[in-house]
Amino acid sequence: MYCNQHPHQQQQQHPQNVTPRHQSPQLQSNYTRAQSHHQSQSQLFDSNSSQLNNIPNPPKESSIPSKFAPTTSPSRPLESDNETTKSDREICKKQKTKDEEYEKQIFEMERLKEIERVEKLHKLWEEFERIERIKIEKGDRETKEIYEKIKSERLLKERKEKDRLEILRMPRMQKHKDMQWHKSNWKC
After folding, report:
1. What is the pLDDT of residue 136?
2. Computed from CA positions of residues 23, 27, 32, 34, in that sequence, does the dihedral angle turn out positive or negative?
3. What is the dihedral of CA 141, 142, 145, 149, to 10 degrees?
4. Alpha helices in the chain (DSSP H)
5. Residues annotated as region Disordered (predicted)?
6. Fewest CB atoms less than 10 Å from the CB: which of 22, 76, 105, 110?
């Protein structure tokens, strides 16, 4: 109550203390009784709760927004909730589809890499076998060449030996022929 207010102004500002004039006296007394009972109970509750629990009364809400005050969004109508839910489902579905597509692409890339790796190993194995064949062929060729060389050297030695023996035999054969000729002439 303000200091410069008059008692009749006080009644105008607090209409709960004033009973309506157009009501019957019985209703007016019931109205006054209910008001006083309500005020006394609320005052009793407020004083008891704060004293017994040592908890200060909660601060009254202000019409000025506080930066620490919880912000509540205005409630949306049910249709808006359904549309949002549908939209969320569609977004989730699209994201799931994108994720599945991405996983398929990763799987396909890994599969192609594995195929490429297997083909590379196969080519390396073929190259290894080709080199081994070349080595074997080269070895076989060298072995054959060595064998041919040894054979030709042996044949050459044999021929030389045969020639040498021929040379050694020739005088003997000549002698033998001569002797044969002499024998035949001697008989005559």
Report:
1. 92
2. negative
3. -170
4. 7-13, 25-52, 78-187
5. 1-99
6. 22
Would you say how long the chain is, in residues?
A: 188
- In terms of Cα–Cα distance, which of 36, 45, 43 is closest to 16? 36
Both structure tokens of 186: 């001697």
- 134: its two tokens: 């070349």
For the chain, 188 residues long, give each residue's pLDDT as a single digit of tens. Answer: 444 544 554 444 444 544 445 555 555 555 555 555 555 555 544 544 444 455 555 555 555 555 555 555 555 555 666 777 888 889 999 999 999 999 999 999 999 999 999 999 999 999 999 999 999 999 999 999 999 999 999 999 999 999 988 888 777 777 777 777 767 766 55
| 184: its two tokens | 């035949």
User: CA–CA separation, 18 vs 28, rounded Å?
Assistant: 9
Cα separation, 28 vs 20, whole angstroms: 7
**Amino acid occupying residue 148:** E
pTM beyond 0.70: the answer is no
Q: Report helix, strand or coil for 66.
A: coil
Going by the DSSP 8-state scheme, the letter that residue 16 receives in this structure is G
Three-point CA angle 102, 103, 107, nearest 5°: 120
